[in-house]
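May I ask for a single protein's sequence together with how it folds?
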Amino acid sequence: MVKQETQAGGEAKETAALRLVSIFKCGRVSLWWAVAAITTAWLLWMTLRPNPIVASELDPLIKPASAHGISPHLLIGLAGNVAVFIPLGTAVALALGGSPARRRLGAAVAGASLSLLIELVQTCIPGRVAAVDDWLLNTAGSVLGALLAGVMRSACRRWVQREKRGAPVGS
């Protein structure tokens, strides 16, 4: 009786682990491409509006940071340009199949392409400025996102292997 309960508990853990893996593998076509599309739409909305509107929305972040001695250029120009493209790089890398190098390259190309499009369109929007450093930082954010996706996939794989062996999750 105890052996049957142990087997049933092990099967339930394995089923939960396989569901998690399906999110990262089988579900990638629908889930991760949808996340990439939503992220792209958000990035376009955020970056292709007139600058005064965007600046007014960022005031709640800029003022407290400035009060603590953080430069608005550092916060928005460097950290912001990198951080906003991390979700895109992560989603594209998780959606793509193939080798880790292919996923990283795909995420980098997706981020660089979208950023280039944004920078070119910004040249036509009054109050917006296109900059090569924005393009480079956005691309770097996509690459960081792809690296994060690799860490997520590895952690998921290790978790599934532990579950199959019956080892505690935290070990």
